[in-house]
Amino acid sequence: MSTLTATRGDPVAQPGGEPGGEPDDRWLWSRLAEADGTALTALYRRHCDAVHNFAFRRTASWAAAEDVVQATFTAVWRRARTGSVDPLRAETARAVLLVMAGQECANVARTARRQRLLRGRIEADAGGAVSADHAASTAARVDDERQMSEVRRALQRIPAVQREAIELVVWSHCSLAEAADALGVSVGTVKSRLHRARRSLTDVIEIDALEEDLS
Length: 215
Known about the structure:
It contains ten helices and no strands. It is an all-alpha fold.
C-alpha cells in the first residue's frame, strides 16, 4: 500500500507494553495521532488480516475486501495527518479499525462491481483463454463469495445495529467492551443487540452454522 510504504515518522523508540515486548496498541495509537508513519505501519501489520476478513464477510467479495483494507488505513492516515485521531480507550485498536472498515465497505463494493463488469468484458473480448490453475483459483474464490452472499442475505433481515454487534463480536472475536467502545454504546447495549440478533437469526439460519461460517 503506497500510503504505508511512502510515509515516514520518527523511529519507534519508546514502545509501550511489557519491557522488551512489542509496542501495545494504545502507545502506537498515540504515536499515530502525532502522524508517525512507523506507528501506522505497525498497526497495519498487526490488524490488516482482521480488517480483510471483516471486509470480505461484509462485502462477500475478495477483491472488494482488499480495497477496503487499503481505503481503511488510508483513511486512518488521513485522520492522523489532519490531527483528528481520537484517543484509543480500549486495549486494542482492532474494533475501532473494523468500524472504520465498515464505513468504507459500501463505496468500495460499488467500485468493485464496476471493475468486475469491466474485467468480464475484457475477458470476453480475449476469448476467455485462462490457465487451468487460474480457473481453479477463480472458481474457489467465486464459491467463497457465493456462500458469504447467502450469509449476508440472512443478516440483511435484522437491523443494522444488530448486524454490527454480530460482525464485531461473532465474526471478529472482539470483546464486548471493545465493541461497545468502538460503537460508542454501553456493554449492556451490545449484549442486548447480540441477544436480539441471535433470536432473530434462528428464524432464518442456524446460528451455529452462522458462527462456523464466520469463524
